[in-house]
Design goal:
Blueprint (H helix, E strand, L loop, with lengths): L2 H27 L3 H13 L5 E5 L5 H8 L4 E6 L2 H13 L6 E5 L2 H4 L6 E7 L8 H10 L1 E10 L3 H16 L11 H9 L3 E8 L3 E8 L1
C-alpha cells in the first residue's frame, strides 16, 4: 500500500468518527464564514441550472445550499460512508434527493469515470490530501467552469496548529495527517491549466479562493 492509499484508509476512519460532530455543528450554526463567502461568490458568477461537484462533501450542507439557490444538480464525493449517510438524509429532508448523487471513494482515483461539472468545490479538502497537485489536476479534469476552494494559510500559527492536530491523531493511534501545503503550489497548479483567480479572501487561518476557466 503506497503513501496516498494508507492516508486515504486512515482518512476514512477519521472522518467517519467525525461525521456526527459535523452534522451537529451544521444544524446548530449553519455554514461557516468561509463557506458563506464561497456561496456568495458562486452566486455572483451565476448558479441557475449549473451542475456541481463537491469533493470531500461531508454531510452535504454546502452543495445543498447551492442547489437551493438555483443550481441544477450535485454530485458529492467523500471517503467516509457515515458522512454520506448524513448527506443523503439531509438531502431527503430538504427535498433535494432527486437532484443529488453521492459516491464513496478517493476522488483522485475515480475522476476519470466522472462527468464534467460546471463548478467544483473543495472546501477544506486540499489540507487533507498529501498530494495537492494530483488532487487539483483531478479537479481540473472534472471541471469546465469554476473551482472554489478553501485551504490553510501557511504561517507559524497554522503550522503549529497542524502539528498539534497531527500529534493528537498519532496519540490516538490514527495514521491520518493534515497538511499545510505551499499556496504557490496550489495556485500554480490551477493557473498552469488555464484557470485564473477571480476571488481571494484571507481569514486568520484560511485562504478562500475561486478560479474560473479562461
Amino acid at each position: 500500500m503506497d503513501c496516498c492509499s494508507r492516508h486515504v484508509a486512515a482518512a476514512q476512519r477519521c472522518f467517519g468518527w467525525m461525521s456526527k460532530l459535523s452534522e451537529r455543528r451544521y444544524r446548530r450554526k449553519g455554514l461557516d464564514e468561509n463557506q458563506q463567502q464561497i456561496v456568495k461568490t458562486l452566486e455572483s458568477l451565476g448558479l441557475e441550472g449549473v451542475s456541481l461537484l463537491e469533493v470531500g462533501c461531508g454531510v452535504g450542507v454546502l452543495h445543498q445550499t447551492l442547489l437551493e439557490m438555483g443550481a441544477a444538480n450535485a454530485l458529492g464525493i467523500d471517503l467516509a460512508p457515515r458522512m454520506l449517510e448524513f448527506a443523503e438524509s439531509r438531502a431527503r429532508e430538504r427535498q433535494l434527493n432527486q437532484r443529488t448523487e453521492y459516491k464513496l471513494g478517493d476522488f483522485v482515483e475515480m475522476c476519470d469515470t466522472l462527468d464534467t461539472a460546471d463548478i467544483t468545490v473543495l472546501d477544506k479538502v486540499v489540507c487533507c490530501y498529501p498530494a495537492p497537485r494530483e488532487l487539483l489536476s483531478a479537479a481540473i479534469t472534472c471541471t469546465r467552469g469554476a473551482i472554489a476552494l478553501t485551504y490553510p494559510r501557511k504561517h507559524f500559527v497554522s503550522e503549529l496548529s497542524n502539528h498539534m492536530w497531527n500529534f493528537g491523531f498519532w496519540l490516538f493511534g490514527s495514521d491520518f495527517r493534515g497538511f499545510v501545503h505551499d499556496p504557490q503550489i496550489i495556485q500554480q497548479s490551477l493557473e498552469e491549466r488555464g484557470f485564473h483567480r477571480v476571488f481571494n479572501r484571507d481569514s486568520r487561518m484560511w485562504h478562500t479562493q475561486v478560479f474560473v476557466a479562461s
